Amino acid sequence: MIIYRDNEANAIFIEDANGAQFLNSLQATVDSNLVSITDTAKGFELVSSASHNDIVDQNGDAYGANATEACDALNAIFQSSGTPTGSAPQITSNLAISLTRGETLNYELTANFGVGYEWDLSNVSGITTVEGNIRKLIGGSSLSEGTYNIPVKAINYNGEDSETIVLTVSSPPFSNTKSVQFYNQDYLGANASLVDSVLGRSSNGSGSGDAWSISMFFKGSNASQGQTILYFGDNDVINGGYIQVMQVNSGGSKIIRLKYGTNNNNLRIQSPAGSITAGTWHHILITYDGGTTGSSSADMSDYYGRFKIFIDGSEQTTNNSNSNYGYTGSLDPDNFRVGRFSSGNYMRDGSKVDELALWDSDQSANISEIYNSGQPFDLTTLSFKPKHWWRMGDGDTYPFLQDNGTEANCIFQMYNMTSSDIISDVP
């Protein structure tokens, strides 16, 4: 039989063939050189006429060389435990616990004069007590952000203390450690219908309901060919409308170009020559206010003015052109890609994209918050949260890139790529 004082529980631990228990209010006596132990609170013997050699401490050592020595040693620890003054339990451990999502809880309940302990864990999935130590909780790594209440009781023969432990699970600190790189014929593809409410439209622009914003960090290569960064729209690019964001060469320097419409009827809005530098991370925000985008030569300045290009937080003075006075039709959700047009025009030579996000509104007025002085940050902390947001490697598992926006339903798949295309080069 193992008997010892558990300092944390402030109670006596007893383990025999019938199991283990924590007790208080005990007294040892000697009769005919045999030891008995009485539970004075309940008035019955727990141990009757046992040899002193059969009673050992947590190290397996006997309490004395004979029954009298064992009795004295046992009563010494019994007197420093339990409820000699008739006190009820009092929980002393912290009632507020904080975890970061994904961490594992390691919590131990302590109480003055506690003997028994009860938990209500029905509200906290994945949390359990430790076998052999009911006062200890572990688990909780699967809990979502939020606040969880855990009722608990410490009990002895004189009463109980009931408290509520408040567990707060918070989001992990933001960290940007990954981006995605592209070589010839590499691209990302997703279900375009899932972003149709953001980038699509049913006819000529109807107003703010058709507005959108596209944000990303981009590090272009020095390739001489034009490279599609993002493409959304009709698979029939001759007759169907689309959005195409490109890096192109202009007199040997690099620019960002937005093409809106079809191959034959479109608007082309582009940043000045040299507005981006190959091999350098730039933040790009392109916005559309949702208005009309074509039909009248007299209104071309209005059509161009629907769109804005910001690079590294600064609005660009764009160079604008058109084919057949712009585009008046719909944008259908046939394709949504990063790094590839309907065919060809791939990104190449190690171009990189990070923190791609979409809003279903014109966010040009919020450029300073979105740009954040060039420092990527948690976009869900904005009051105007993006509908879709791809971290481009952070929190992702090849070959899928998860959507972290408010819709959180559009997943990119990596095509012609390997896991090594998720890299640690970041802005």
Residue-averaged pLDDT, rounded?
92
Tally of extended strands? Answer: 32
Nearest-angstrom radius of gyration?
Answer: 35 Å
Q: Tell me the number of helical segments per DSSP (H or I, 4 or more residues long).
A: 4
User: Could you please say which CATH topology of the largest domain applies here?
Assistant: Jelly Rolls
- Strand proportion, as a percent range, falls in 35-45%
Largest sheet composition: 9 strands, antiparallel
Overall shape: it is: rod-shaped
Order of strands, main sheet, comes to 26-22-21-20-19-27-17-31-30
Determine the structural class based on helices, strands and strand pairing. mainly beta
CATH architectural type of the largest domain = Sandwich
Number of domains: 3
Unreliable stretches (pLDDT < 50, length at least 5) are none
Share of helix, binned: under 10%
State the separation between the terminal residues, measured CA to CA: 65 Å
CATH class of the largest domain: Mainly Beta
Question: What does this molecule look like?
Answer:
The chain is mostly beta strands and 427 residues long. It has three domains: 2-79; 90-170, Sandwich (Immunoglobulin-like), CATH 2.60.40.10; 179-423, Jelly Rolls (Sandwich), CATH 2.60.120.200. It contains four helices and 32 strands. It has helices at 67-79, 196-199, 300-305, 367-371, and strands at residues 2-6, 11-16, 19-23, 26-31, 34-39, 44-50, 90-91, 96-100, 105-108, 111-112, 116-119, 127-130, 133-139, 146-156, 159-170, 179-182, 187-190, 212-219, 227-233, 242-250, 253-261, 266-270, 281-288, 307-311, 314-315, 319-323, 335-338, 351-359, 388-390, 400-401, 412-415, 422-423. The strands form seven sheets. Strands 26-22-21-20-19-27-17-31-30 form a nine-stranded antiparallel sheet. Strands 16, 18, 23, 24, 25, 28, 29 and 32 form an eight-stranded antiparallel sheet that branches. The model has no long low-confidence stretch (mean pLDDT 92).
